[in-house]
Amino acid sequence: MTSFLLGVISKLRGLILRDDTMTGSRSNDAVENMNYLIITANVGTLFEDPEGIQNVWMEEVFKVVKERQPHLIAMHCQEIGGKDYKSSMEPVKEFFDKLMSSEALNEFVIVRGYLDGDFDHVDQYTALGNIYFVHKSVNNAMLFNYTSGEFEDVSEKKVFSKDIPKLSCVKKEKFEQNFFPDCRWSRKGYCRVRWRINGQVIEFVNIHLFHDDNNLVSIKSSPSPYTSYRKRALKFVLNRLQEESPCRDGVSFVCGDFNFRLDVKSLVQKLCPASKQQVVRAPTEEEEVIRVVYRNGESESTDDEASVTNGNEESTSDEVLVKIEKKVFEVEQSLLRPNSSYSHLRRFDLEPNDVEGKLMEFDVSFPPTYPFSEDTSNGEGYMDTRCPSWCDRILLTQDSWDWIHSQENHGNAVYDTIGSNVCMGDHKPVYLAFTAAPQKPDEPVPEDKAQSSTTDEATT
Asked: What is the mean pLDDT of residues 337-356?
C-alpha cells in the first residue's frame, strides 16, 4: 500500500512540474538567473504624431522584449506628454494603457507606473515617467518604502499620474532654477524607485538634464557652459543617492536623457582644420552673432573671426562645410560620417568622463541618439538642428558594474538602440539587457584578518 501511495505521489509531482513548464513558470535554476531589460526613451515626439510614430515605436520595443525574454522591464521615459502636455494627460494615459494591454506584455502581471502629470505645480513638474513590468514567473517582487525604510509586497497593475511626491515608494525632485541660469523655465529633474526582485535589490534612477539651448554658445568655448550646468546637476543627484536613503544593500542604475553633447568647438576645429571662418552679426546696435560659417579654403587670418559681416554673409564660391546658428547645425555629411560610421565622433563625447569612477558604461557602438529626423520615411537621418550626440545613456554604479561582470560571460550584456533603421522620434531609445543571479552576501572576514586590515589602513 505504501509503495502504491508513493507511486501516485510521484506521478502527481511529475504532472505538476510539467504543468508549471507549460504555463511559463520556470525552475528554481531559471529564476535564479533573471533576464533584465532597462530602457530609456525621450518620448516627447510620440505625442505629436500618435498614429504614426507611436505604433512603430511600440512595435520596435516589443521586438526587443520578445528577443530578450525579460523577467523585469524598467522603462524610463522623459518629456511625457510632449510640447502640449498642459492640454491634457489623456494622451499620456492612453499611450501607457495601450502599452500595458499589449499582447507582447500580457505575461507581466505586476506593473508599477509613476507618470509625473502634476504640470499645475511648476515647482515640482518634471515630465518624467517610470514604469516597471514584472513577469508572472517572478515569485518575489517588493518595492522600497522611502518613508518607512522597509520593502513592501506589490501585486496587480497600477499606474499613478497625480501627487507623485506624496507616494512613499518613489522619490522625485525637480532641479532648482539656478542649476540652469540661462533657461527661463525647465522641467528637468530625476525620479528614483527601488525594487527587491527575487532577493536582488536594484534602484533605478530616471534623470533628465538640461540641453544646449544655443549652438552659438556651445561653440564659443571648450567645454561649453552647458556642460558645467549638467555636471553640477548630475553631481547633485549622485550626492542625493548617497545621502538620502542610500541603496547600500543593492545596486543602482542611473539612466535617462543626460543631454550629453559633443565638444562642438573641438569637433569643428578637427573637421575643418584649414577652413575659412565667417561670423555674421545682426544689423542691430548690439551686433549679436547670428551665424557662424566654415567654408572650404584656407583662412587668411588666425583670429577666431576671420571674416565678419552684417546681415547676409558675403557671396563666395567656397563650399560651406559647417553652418551654425542658434538652432541650426548643418555639416557636410562626408565630414560627419566618413565610411558610414560615427565612431570618430566618440573622442568628442567627453562629458561622461566627469563622472568616471562614480558611474560606468558599457561600450557605445551605436550611432548618436539625437536629433533624429521626425520624418517617418527617414529612420536613420538626423535633423540639421543640433550636432548629433549620445544624449540617451544607461550608466551603472560601481556595484552594478561589478555585479554584472561577476556573471558568466558578463551576463551576456547587450547595450544598443531600439529601432535603429526606423523613425522613433527625435531620440532613439537605448536599452541594456543582461542576465544575472542575485548577489551573494559577502563572506564574513575572520577577526584576525579584519584587525590586520584595519591596522594596515591606519598605517597607510
From this structure: 91
